[in-house]
Design a protein that fits this description.
The structure is a single chain. With about 80 residues, this protein is α/β, with parallel strands linked by helices. The protein contains three helices and four strands. The N and C termini lie far apart (about 30 Å).
Length: about 80
């Protein structure tokens, strides 16, 4: 059975570790990216099922990233964390 793949974009390393470990403990596969500017290329490589996006990040904020992700995959669920 395939695990649901979550793409988590968070620049605060400690918070990213806590959240990703919690999700992994519940059976999800989690891919973390810390830089909004690199996130779109990681998104296209990973092909996740769900995206969790921080709002404030270096090089690109979460709302702008969401617009770019929507251009690639208009149906992917997006959740914002702040």
């Amino acid at each position: 059975m395939n695990k649901t793949k979550i793409f988590y974009v968070e620049d605060e390393q400690f918070l990213a570790k806590i959240v990703s470990e919690s999700l992994q403990g519940r059976g999800y596969e989690v891919v973390v990216e810390a830089d909004g500017g690199r996130a779109l290329s990681t998104f296209t490589a990973v092909k996740p099922d769900i995206c969790l996006l921080d709002v404030m990040m270096p090089n690109m904020d979460g709302f702008t990233l969401a617009e770019e992700i929507r251009d690639v995959d208009p149906d992917i669920p997006l959740f914002f964390l702040s």
